[in-house]
Structure formats: C-alpha cells, structure tokens
C-alpha cells in the first residue's frame, strides 16, 4: 500500500514525496482512513512508528473542507505533554501543510508569551500546545476554543503521568461538544480509558502492536557495572566503539549535568537537557545534538518522548527509569522509522529489582555483558522472568480543591509549582526561640484585604481558659 491509495490530497502527497515518504506505516495505514471519515479514534502503537503523521495527514485534509480560522480562533488543537514534543509535532504539521492554505502555530511555556499572542491574533487552523500555556493564553483572551473542530491528545498516557488531569478537565470544559476527538497513546491503561470515556464519542480503536514491547529493529543489552565505574564505562564505550551520536538518560537533573560536564572534560562534546534548563538552552542543546556539533545528549525523562532524531544509533540508560514502562519509550528514541538501533543499560547490584521489573513489563530477559576493565565487585542476581500479569495501577487521587480553585485557577506555566509553605514550616527569625511564636507576627489579611483590628495584650492568666467546675 502507498499513500496515494489512502485518498490523500495531491498537495499533501507532494509534501510527502519531497520528504521521501511513499509507504505508510501500519499505524498510519489503519488510522488515516478512520480520521478521514470524521469518526473519533483511540489509537495505540509503539513509539517511533509514525503516530504523528497518522493524525496530522488526515487532520489537514479534513480542515481543507471548512473556512479559515477567524481572529483568535483555532480550528484544530493538538495537546502534548512536553515542549520538545510540541515543537516536533508543530514541525511536522508545517512540513505536511507546506503546499496547503492552512496556518499553524505552536505555544508552550518557558518562553515569552507576547509573540505567541501576536501569532494567534489572525487565527490559526492548527495549534499545537502544552496545557499550561494554552490555559494562560485563554485566560488572557488571546485565543478562543469554542470553534474547535478537531482535538488531538498526543501521548495521552504521559499526560496523566505528568499530572495534567486538572488542566485537561479545564480545557475540555472550554471545547464545543460537537467535534472530532483523536487519542494517541503507547498504551490505554484503566485511567486512560476512564479519561477517554468522557472525551470521545463511539470511537474506533486501533492497536498495531502489543503494549510495552520494543521494536524489532532495536537490539539491547545490560552492562553489569559498579556505580563508581559508570562514567568510566560510558567514556570507554563511546571512544573505543566509536559511537558518533549517543542519547544518555539520567534519572536526575543534577546527574545529567554531572555526566555532561565529565564527558566534556574527557574531550567528548556533550550537553544536558532537563526541566531546570531554560527553553532556549534546551532548544540549543537539542539542535546541536541533531547537527552533530555535540556527540552526546544527556537527558532526564523529559526527553523520553518527543525527541525524534533521524537514524539515532545509540541510547544509554545511565540510570534505569523509575517507571518500568518508560524503558520502552527511552530506547524507542533509536530504531525509528525502520532504522536499526542499539540500547545499553548500566545496572548495578542495587538496580536488580528495577531490572527485573523492566523484564517483566517487556516480557523478555535482556542479554547481559561485562566489560573486562570494569568488572563489578558483585555479580547481579540471575533473572527469572515473571510471566504473571501485572496488576493495574490505581490512579492517583487528585488533591482536594475548592470550587473556586477548580474553576478559576490555571497554571501560569508548564512547570510544576512548588508547594506553598505552611505557617508551622516557617523558620523563626534569627535570635528567636524556635519553640515560641515571634512576639509580633503579622496578622493574616481578611478577604477584603484589610488587616483585622488588634486586641489589647492580655496577661497569661487572662488568656487562660476557665477551669471546669464539678
């Protein structure tokens, strides 16, 4: 089968031909006809199988039937969990619509909002967005969502993992009930299906591969190593094996910085990307990695989805992921679009439980290796594949909110907020007794903003509650 047989517009076919695409992937082959028919869809497929084109191509064609977007209006909305994925999807939309009379834009946090507001003034046919920035723009009357014709939720399972459920509920309340809704996810767990039930109307379901399985184009192995030798082993493999482009995953932001700094110290060009980096720094690091200016990109799980690098040959799990299911998404950065790839994981004796959990999720044992120069002080316990079905995760209970908070409060960015400090957590001023309250503590403000009136100081005996009489 080729793209012509799917009934796509000749202008879209021209854009595909210019990119060198002629044959649809299995998920594209099944999803595109459903989307073109106007029906809601729930599609599940492995990472790296072409899900983005699976909804973008038919979505663009369906938008050709209607009139252009009016000022501050949006016709199709694509929601993604991360800024990098939003930019990647937007790049694909721009590519596939290069010969179409359609306008597209992308909005996400971490950058100035005014340029985004200006781009939305004339209206856009396709808007790719992260939830937090989308709500910010709506709250500032920079865009309207009441004319949405198509809603796409990309990486729906990741959205729930990252705590976007409250934002999604607010966004859903702003959308028209009559629309086409498309959900694309690696898996459809119980929480995802519960969310989908409130969003879709009689959806078609497409699944082209078993959940949590690695692509056949990817080989993977485990290196048994002591924690103290991980950096030395990584440097050795890159230099001795001649690895030219490597994506390394660290479980912490500090660890990502440390690994990148150490590699640069050995003459290996490296850059780090994580949530504490500015959006400009993240964009530059990714661009330098794609261009080959730096050989190694060290990332936290912010990059497990949303980074699409042509012919990326190697992925290294410097630390195993906290969530076993994320292993498939991490190694799925390589072996994409039919290319081959190799994934390596460094595992210490302390990581045995995490390794066993990953092997249980993917349903296979990962081959093990030991580098002669970096033999571990103690060998890993032998793996025994647990074939019992995993128990479904219970969805996290949302924090209680007042009606005012649930309806009016929207996040100011896509980053997580730090919890507010309770009065009892506040440190006393220098020189005060920590066991006693400060002599003069500011009185709380009332709802009107005025400070309550002070009452005269009383002696300790006057403040004492009267004793009960028999």
UniProtKB/TrEMBL annotation:
Instruction: Provide ranges: composition bias, Basic and acidic residues.
Output: 414-429
Report the GO terms under cellular component.
cytosol
Q: What is its EC number?
A: 3.6.4.13
- Xref: PROSITE patterns: DEAD_ATP_HELICASE (PS00039), HELICASE_ATP_BIND_1 (PS51192), HELICASE_CTER (PS51194), Q_MOTIF (PS51195)
Reactions accelerated catalytically: ATP + H2O = ADP + phosphate + H(+)
Q: Helicase C-terminal domain: from which residue to which, for each copy?
A: 230-378
Q: Which major enzyme category is it?
A: hydrolase
Q: Cross-referenced SUPFAM superfamilies, in alphabetical order?
A: P-loop containing nucleoside triphosphate hydrolases
Query: By its UniProt entry, which Pfam families does this protein fall under?
Result: DEAD, Helicase_C
Could you tell me the keywords of this UniProt record?
Answer: ATP-binding, Cytoplasm, Helicase, Hydrolase, Nucleotide-binding
UniProt feature, compositional bias: Basic residues: 390-399
- Entry GO MF terms: ATP binding; hydrolase activity; nucleic acid binding; RNA helicase activity
Cite the Helicase ATP-binding domain residue spans from the record: 32-206
Entry keyword annotation includes Cytoplasm:
yes
UniProt short sequence motif Q motif, positions renumbered to this chain: 1-29
**Which GO terms fall under biological process for this protein?**
response to temperature stimulus; ribosome assembly
Indicate, by first and last residue, each region the UniProt record lists as having compositional bias (Polar residues). 458-470
Q: Which SMART domains does the protein's record reference?
A: DEXDc (SM00487), HELICc (SM00490)
Q: Which residues form the DEAD-box RNA helicase Q domain?
A: 1-29
Region Disordered: what ranges?
Answer: 373-470
Q: Name the domain of life this protein comes from.
A: Bacteria
What family does this belong to?
Belongs to the DEAD box helicase family.
**Name of this chain's protein:** DEAD-box ATP-dependent RNA helicase RhpA
